[in-house]
Amino acid sequence: MTRAHETVVADQFGPRAHAYVESAVHARGEDLDRLEAIVAAASPAAALDLGTGGGHVAYRLAAHARAVTACDLSADMLAAVVETARERGLSNIATAEAPAEALPFADGAFDFLGCRYSAHHWRGFEAGLAEARRVLEPGSTAVFVDAVSPGPALLDTHLQAVELLRDPSHVRDYTASEWLAALTRAGFSVAAMHAFRVRIAFGPWIERMRTPPGHVGAIRALQALASSEVREAFAIEADGSFMLDGLVIEARAA
What whole-number distance in Å separates Cα of residue 101 and Cα of residue 187? Predict the structure, then answer.
């Protein structure tokens, strides 16, 4: 049986929707706090959460925007967002089912965009960024948050390998320079970039994605065989937990 990439993504995340709503890594963090501070200053009329997942960006946007649209290609994820928004009394969140590369919105439909931990799953990274720019009014703010590659090939290969073994919908953790170049080509100007690190607890990380035992074993084998440079860069612990690099990018639609 063959599946398109978007189907792989939906199949991976749909059955785990509530796990992502409840995930501590996704539900809080300095990056999410920073994003909320930016949207609070902007006070947008119409905000888009692109690749909403468990909806954590949408919930933060809802406190500061008149209307929020949570967009994702997983219907199950969107159903979980609707349920959670209702439980939290957030009546200004609507949902839309679509991939990042083909958004069903008019040009300039939004005056704020948040996108967190989504772009590394997109089939077309630059196509998704181009769509993000298209649906934003000129001068509007976009905040992109994602895991990033440290850069050097030695570290990059290890990171992409363990990410793909854990989750077959993974495409790529891009470097900061790749993000900057792609955003510029898409029609954004980068106002600020903030690097951060987050500890990934190995057990919840694989359980959340229901990673098959054989893949878990392969990840642990890669960690065990990793060079001292790799082990130090990712601060790999005895139980497989490690440190992941992240980036918060504040950009403007040119």
Answer: 15
